[in-house]
Amino acid sequence: MTTLNSRVPEGPIKDKWTLYKDHIDLVNPANKRNIDIIVVGTGLAGGSAAATLAELGYNVKAFAYQDSPRRAHSIAAQGGINAAKNYMGDGDSNYRLFYDTVKGGDYRSREANVHRLAEVSGAIIDQCVAQGVPFARDYGGLLDNRSFGGVLVSRTFYAKGQTGQQLLLGCYSAMNRQIARGKIEMFNRHEMLDVVKIDGKARGIIARDLITGEIERHSAHAVVIATGGYGNVYFLSTNAMGSNATAAWKIHKKGAYFANPCFTQIHPTCIPRSGDYQSKLTLMSESLRNDGRIWVPAKIEDAKAIQQGKLKPTAIAEEDRDYFLERRYPAYGNLVPRDVASRAAKERCDAGHGVNATGEAVYLDFAAAIHRYGSTKAKIQGLHNPSKEEVIKLGEAVIEEKYGNLFQMYEKIIDENPYKTPMMIYPATHYTMGGVWVDYNLMTTVPGLYCIGEANFSDHGANRLGASALMQGLADGYFVLPYTIGDYLADDIRTGKIPTNSPEFDEVEKSVKDQLEFFVNNKGTHSVDYFHKKLGLVMWNKVGMARNEKGLKEAIKEIQDIREDFWKNVKVPGSLNELNPELEKAGRVADFLELGELFAKDALEREESCGGHFREEHVTEDGEAKRDDKNFAYVAAWEYTGKPSEAILHKEQLEFKDIELKTRSYK
Ligand SMILES: Cc1cc2nc3c(=O)[nH]c(=O)nc-3n(C[C@H](O)[C@H](O)[C@H](O)COP(=O)(O)OP(=O)(O)OC[C@H]3O[C@@H](n4cnc5c(N)ncnc54)[C@H](O)[C@@H]3O)c2cc1C
Predict the structure, then answer these.
(1) Which of 470, 478, 591 to mutate to test the pocket of ligand 1 (most atoms within 8 A of CB)?
(2) Which helix (H) or strand (E) holds 318?
(3) Does residue 3 carry a pLDDT above 70?
(4) CA 20, CA 12: separation in Å to the nearest integer?
(5) Does ligand 1 lie within 6 Å of residue 543's CB atom?
(6) Active-site residue among 116, 338, 547, 615?
(7) How confident is the model at residue 4 (pLDDT cuts 50, 70, 90)?
(8) CA 297 – CA 569 distance, rounded (Å)
(9) Ligand 1 atom index nearest CA of 469
(10) Which ligand 1 atom sits closest to the C-alpha of 45?
(11) Is the pLDDT at 667 greater than 50, yes or no?
């Protein structure tokens, strides 16, 4: 079996990144002006990379399918971004952030990368503050922090429930400065449809202008993919509707290995599905678990009455409530990591204790927090013996200050007031830890082709802790890639412009055009969404929160059948040379239909339970995930050989020299 070279530098873990930076090749400023870099995707990862590379002096061409980088899916991030600043004085450190992230990922991530992430985390906050990102501050004016799941310290920086939006505005201003200087050429409304390799190196892309339909060739000395995650393979997810895997999948087909596709995060606090016609799910930020208590009725008859609309949650007495996370995991309670919280909710709902009409919901209740905050406020205001109503009013005001926009969003969608009656939540697909395999330099298995942000597999192992995706995307873009790419480009200073009139560009452009023409000419019977929904259902039922061998084998066959049907019967209205969203979706769903199969194959091969991957055959006596470190402490990196079913598995063995492999416990 091929051994993947992760190119982790030598030396003690705390010195690796510093030593690496001290010894890499550099490109001098005059030479940077002669080097072009393509960045595909301008969410937080790609946007921060584009801005920094341009600031360094490279010529950047940046691509996004939205009409502005400000509309990237990153804008949706609500809860916050982690950094080991220890501003709260609660014992945080780079080591603790490193430790929590490796443990939270169920010991399936590369130690050296995670340590580097922790090391640069503090600089991200400084950078964003300098850009003017309005992080929340405490009464003394210092940056405030809150807690997210899986940790015992408060290290999450936030801007109300709009952290991603504010970070993206900061990043976009940094990009705009470079756009104005001509160092970034921004291609909005452009979709990359394939990568072009020359002499084995990534040298360009083929993109479609989504407004005119024109197919364009773009060349560069290196290509960076920052196109986000593939959660929409499930059709329903908390991701933006347009989030897709096309760029990642196309580069996989051109030689980039795809790692751990089965590691997907199912987030515990989403608004439950309401019906078959729904096309999107909504996240309620994990930050709500700081104050919300999760429960279901302890008595099955109460749950039934609630499901039938005969009983209200507020009518259930305290002793008849099962705060199942607090009961099962007393040390972390409602702040256990997402995989643990999601599985526990599913277990209660499967046992019949779910609380909406479908039986697939649990409560997230703020009554205790409202009472606690209200009582404190009353004391501060010198109110003696305040009435219950006064306490509630004061408490609700505190909750509104912390989470007001999230509560408002919930009320708009569900039409219930979450200050008065507990929210209903249920797990939903949210984030993909798997992705394109990259080495320590964030380079894929194709020379000159890099992958950053959610699109790559790195740092989060089998489960991502809350508030660490933004940290990783910005670490990659602002602080890691700008160094590592220079080491590669130092060999390219004499190459000169890469021409686009080569046979390699001809060939890739032709295959892109052929596929687009096929779609508009196929005149099939079913819409793209018809196939996407079918795929999503198979993924959720058989490759979702719990998986088993039988279901996975069935899923592989079912996905192959849906794919065959798709290529025979898909109907794409409209034409090539116009804005055609159905045509865009067709290409994306074609790729999901292949990725879904590899996903199930990976889940089948991984005969253990770890993090977001729960195999029903591998469970401890008390129902927890049972890892198999002896046989599965590796990154599964898949090589494409023509069909997902024929993909070849390469294993990157994970070494744990600085953190002891332990059974993860939050009890
Ligand atoms: C509702 C929600 C809330 C979240 N909250 C948090 C949080 O509080 N904290 C946290 O740490 N994480 C959070 N996350 C996760 C986090 O937001 C994402 O992981 C992160 O923003 C991804 O950033 P990215 O830059 O990698 O990708 P994205 O932001 O998805 O950007 C992708 C970019 O690629 C472009 N693109 C895609 N395909 C192509 C193509 N083929 N051609 C051209 N361009 C393309 C898009 O136009 C876009 O510019 C949340 C996620 C969701 C869904």
Answers:
(1) 470
(2) none
(3) no
(4) 12
(5) no
(6) 338
(7) confident
(8) 47
(9) 11
(10) 25
(11) yes
Q: Measured from the CA of 452, which atom of ligand 1 is nearest?
A: 26
Closest by alpha carbon to 183, among 77, 20, 351, 36? 36
Collect all residues with Cβ–Cβ distance below 8 Å to 47 and sequence separation of at least 6: 62, 69, 72, 74, 168, 171, 172, 174, 175, 477
Residue 42, classified by CB atoms within 10 Å of its CB into exposed (0-12), middle (13-18) or buried (19+), is: buried
From ligand 1's centre to the CA of 491, what distance in Å? Answer: 32
3-state secondary structure of 620: coil
Active site residue 338: yes
pLDDT of 1 > 60? The answer is no
Indicate if ligand 1 lies below 6 Å from the C-beta of 73: yes
The total of other beta-carbon atoms located within 10 Å of residue 13's CB is 19
- Give me ligand 1 centre to Cα 582, in Å: 22
Whose Cα sits closest to atom 8 in ligand 1?
79
Which distant-in-sequence residues (6+ apart) come within 8 Å of 489 by Cβ? 27, 35, 37, 58, 221, 222
* Mean pLDDT for the stretch of residues 144-154: 88
Summarised one tens digit per residue, pLDDT across range 166-212 is 999 999 999 999 999 999 999 999 999 999 999 999 999 999 999 99
- Report the alpha-carbon distance of residue 130 to residue 140 in Å, rounded: 19
8 A C-beta contact, residue 163 and residue 407? no
8 A C-beta contact, residue 181 and residue 487: no
Question: Higher pLDDT residue, 275 or 380?
Answer: 380
**CA-to-CA distance for 170 and 659, rounded, in angstroms?**
35
* Pocket of ligand 1 contains residue 170 by CB under 6 Å: no
Residue 113 to residues 108, 476, 492, Cα–Cα distance (Å): 12, 10, 26
Residue 28: what residue type? Answer: N
